[in-house]
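To: structure desk
From: M.T.
Subject: fold request, one chain
Message: Could you run this one when you get a chance? Sequence is below, nothing fancy, just the single chain.
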Amino acid sequence: MAVKNIALKTKAPTEPKMAKSGGGIELYLRRIFALMFGAVGITAFASFITMVTPLWSTLFTPTGLSAFYYILLFGGLALAIWAQVRAFSFKPSTGILLLLLYAVLTGVVMTPLLIVAVTHNPLTILSAFVIAAVMFACMALFGYKTVKDLSFMGIFLFMGMIGLILVGIASLIWPAILGGTFGTIVCFIGVLIFALFTAYDMQTLKRAYAVLGNGNQKNQLAVLGALHLYISFIAMFQYLLSLLNRN
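Reply: Done. Structure tokens follow.
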């Protein structure tokens, strides 16, 4: 489960202002993607360490997932919400540490899904990653380049994400709810929502950069943007992996 706070809405800047900030925005975007993919790498490493050490056994009981797993799951969820709400109160270095901590928690929590994939077909992990990466790149480029205002999507994407979270919580109580056709539909909807979130966030981050004059705020925004894009990428990967292992 992933959660995002859509609080980056800004008024679209004029073209001259965008042009003046063009040199700096490249460095700003490089910082965002470096942080984001660094977090993805840490998530992969955390999952690997969890799977090859006795730590994985702490996530399970004889009848299902352990209390420790749920503590990590909802603790990560709370951390993501808190980090986004307080993003402009932290120093950028503190925000980066929180992003990396969230990446570690996500990696541990993803382990059960990865164990299922490794058990049935390890190649689905690579397939899901490649598909998610291609979709992410295409949607990020679209969001950055399009002149169409995507802000209207914000409320619908937020509602869709809340719906996915509620379904995810329900599935922890009644696992059978995600079986069959309904589970497949949920996976497709999850991929679609977070693909659109990628485009939406890219456009929002581009506009926010143009209207923020304070360098420290831009660094804080870069960390927040990295978190948003990280959540979208990881969510797409998880839904795709689930879809490829439906059987």
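Reply (cont.): Confidence is low (pLDDT under 50) at residues 9-22. Let me know if you need anything else for the meeting.
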